[in-house]
């Protein structure tokens, strides 16, 4: 989780490329869906964070090393000059277990 949050905060699409599952799918704050390639492209389209934190709740772990983590993502930044700030409830699914 820490590596993912750091990569998001730093706008490091290369690091995210190594962390995200090939079938990655994200639901945006307005209900839109972003596939893996679209998620990685966000930083090349004007997204920049000045702050990005993830505070996890207790993960639910599974015997195969997978885990589901619900937590709060707090972010501050801009997308093409427009503010992208707020706190959001987020669900992350890890395969192989979170770090």
From TrEMBL:
UniProt-listed Gene3D superfamilies: 3.10.450.50
InterPro entries, sorted: DUF4440, NTF2-like_dom_sf
DUF4440 domain ranges (all copies): 2-94
Pfam families in alphabetical order: DUF4440
Protein name, entry field: DUF4440 domain-containing protein
Organism: Streptomyces albiaxialis
């Amino acid at each position: 989780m820490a590596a993912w949050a750091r990569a998001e905060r730093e706008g490091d699409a290369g690091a995210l490329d190594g962390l995200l599952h090939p079938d990655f799918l994200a639901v945006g704050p307005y209900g839109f869906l972003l596939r893996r390639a679209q998620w990685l492209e966000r930083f090349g389209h004007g997204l920049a964070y000045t702050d990005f934190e993830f505070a996890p709740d207790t993960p639910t772990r599974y015997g195969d090393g997978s885990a589901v983590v619900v937590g709060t993502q707090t972010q501050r930044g801009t997308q093409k000059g427009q503010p992208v700030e707020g706190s959001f409830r987020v669900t992350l699914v890890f395969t192989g277990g979170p770090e």
